[in-house]
Design a protein that fits this description.
- The protein is mainly alpha-helical and about 180 residues long.
- It has one domain (about 1-125).
- It contains 5 helices and no strands.
- Helix 1 (about 1-30) packs antiparallel against helix 2.
- The protein is rod-shaped.
């Protein structure tokens, strides 16, 4: 607002300077040199005021720019402050010890998975091979109870007792 008021004042001074210059010319034509000289001194003073006004306007414009830039800086600082608070909250949730523990657990899990992958890929060590063979021998040495096999030869044909309707054929019974 002050800048705008100074600009209006500057316009008024410029109009006055033009009028006084024209009036000074007219006074010189009329031979009133003293009055023309006094009017030119007044004009010179107003020109100095005009220069001061221009400097004040320039200062005000710089101040407005500084204020606008400071407002931008304040927004940046506020953003940094909010970001810092967010980081601090995240750090409270996740401590260094917790991160180290998680990384350790992850490394253990990766190592365990690598061992499983090696076993599945068939890259067993000699110790693993020996342990597997021992386990296989132990399983095969366990007595498995099987039913007794009859010592008599099986009859070639099953005697038909009585004809029953819809009775399945013996070949189908044995197959199922």
């Amino acid at each position: 607002q002050q800048r705008d008021k100074l600009r209006q004042y500057q316009k008024r001074l410029n109009l006055n300077l033009e009028r006084e210059r024209a009036l000074a010319r007219q006074l010189l034509k009329e031979g009133k040199k003293e009055k023309a000289m006094l009017l030119l001194k007044k004009k010179r003073y107003q020109e100095q005021l005009l220069d001061k006004t221009e400097n004040q306007i320039s200062n005000l414009e710089r101040m407005v720019q500084d204020i606008e830039f400071t407002q931008i800086e304040m927004k940046v600082i506020e953003g940094l402050k909010i970001g810092n608070e967010c980081l601090n909250k995240m750090h409270q949730v996740m401590s260094i010890e917790e991160v180290e523990r998680i990384i350790g657990e992850t490394q253990d899990a990766v190592e365990y998975q690598r061992q499983i992958d090696e076993i599945l890929a068939g890259s067993l060590t000699e110790e693993d091979e020996d342990a597997i063979l021992e386990e296989l021998n132990a399983i095969t040495q366990e007595q498995v109870e099987l039913p007794e096999v009859p010592s008599e030869p099986l009859p070639e044909k099953i005697p038909e007792a009585s004809p029953v309707k819809n009775r399945p054929k013996p070949e189908l019974v044995a197959a199922s």
